[in-house]
Design brief:
321 residues; alpha/beta; Rossmann fold; 2 domains; six-stranded mixed sheet; 12 helices; 40% helix; globular
Length: 321
């Protein structure tokens, strides 16, 4: 573990006045403690690509020093040349410094505790982290917020919201290799400046997110592994998943032999309901998805459908893997 010394977070806002344009920055809306993170990966698909670096900063709002976490991870697949060009992370670096994913994830989970997490394009980072944790029977259930969303709200007229472009607006350059801890540092700068720009009430609404829709993941109909232990089962995933992405859960189910379908039909035998249903919650208090309601309707007519929670699905997977 290292230490990042900013002097204070107020200094961060002061050096970002080009974006902020406020003479008296206010940071009271920030949590007293939170973690800003970034990852580097072998590709863009969290269901099949892997994490090769994690960088994080544990921020204490009113402190002078902020502990950091940085580690290289050994992937099971070769690092593509394009990824090496972007990150500067080579196979030789991984051979010398890379550590096992489960060990480093366990330490990372200990580092973040139950603190709120912040990342630039958070769904990307959190998808990789949660899938990796799921694979190793670990859990990352921390609340997360997106610095990219905050930047769009704070400065709606910018032509580009790439981290590198926001850096240029502040007179800083992060051209060249993208490393996780460096990107986490600049994500912290952007998130803090965006919070100060938005103000207490607007930033509070952004963090709570009642007006933001979290759209369900798209599921593609896929035939299951014919030699899998669950061959013949027809599985549907619904609502929002907390422990991993639906795409990753679907890949596991297909590997075990389940036929994956996007919607409940008369052929459905298993429905897995995610822990989060905020997108589907209406003012009338309805918290069941269309697939969930349809499954209950079919069950009332005598169709045999098992409705599982995320945890129950995980137990089912463990039984046959």
């Amino acid at each position: 573990m290292g230490w990042l010394i900013f002097g204070s977070l107020l200094f961060i806002v002061l050096i970002l006045l080009v974006l902020n344009r406020k003479s008296n920055p206010n940071l009271s809306m920030l949590p007293k403690q939170f973690v800003v993170l970034d990852i580097e990966t072998t590709g863009l698909d969290s269901s099949k690509h892997e994490i090769i670096e994690i960088g994080a900063i544990k921020v204490t709002r009113d402190s002078l020093n902020h502990p950091t976490f940085q580690t290289l991870i050994k992937p099971t697949q070769k690092i593509p040349k394009k990824i090496t060009q972007i990150t500067g992370i080579t196979a030789d670096m991984i051979d010398k410094e890379g550590l096992e994913l489960k060990t480093e994830l366990t330490e990372f989970i200990d580092f973040i505790g139950d603190l709120e997490l912040v990342a630039y394009n958070a769904p990307f980072d959190m998808g990789f982290l949660r899938n990796a944790a799921y694979k190793h029977n670990l859990e990352i259930k921390n609340r997360s917020n997106c610095a990219l969303v905050a930047a769009r709200k704070a400065w709606p007229d910018l032509k580009s919201y790439k981290l590198t472009e926001l850096a240029k607006l502040n007179g800083r350059s992060i051209e060249g290799h993208h490393r996780a801890l460096q990107d986490a540092e600049f994500t912290l700068l952007v998130y803090t400046a965006a919070a100060s720009t938005l103000g207490v009430e607007n930033f509070a609404r952004l963090r709570e997110g009642p007006a933001r829709k979290s759209y369900p993941e798209k599921v593609v109909k896929t035939e299951g592994n014919p030699s899998g232990a669950l061959n013949g089962e027809v599985i549907v995933f619904t609502a929002e998943f907390e422990l991993c992405t639906i795409k990753y859960a679907g890949m596991i189910a297909v590997g075990l032999g389940c036929n994956l379908h996007p919607n409940v039909t008369k052929k459905t035998t298993i429905l897995v309901v995610g822990n989060k249903v905020s997108y589907f919650t209406t003012k009338s208090g309805n918290t069941k998805t269309g697939n969930h309601k349809k499954a209950l309707e079919y069950i009332s007519r005598g169709q045999a459908i098992r409705i599982l929670t995320e945890s129950e699905f995980r137990e089912l997977v463990a039984r046959y893997q």
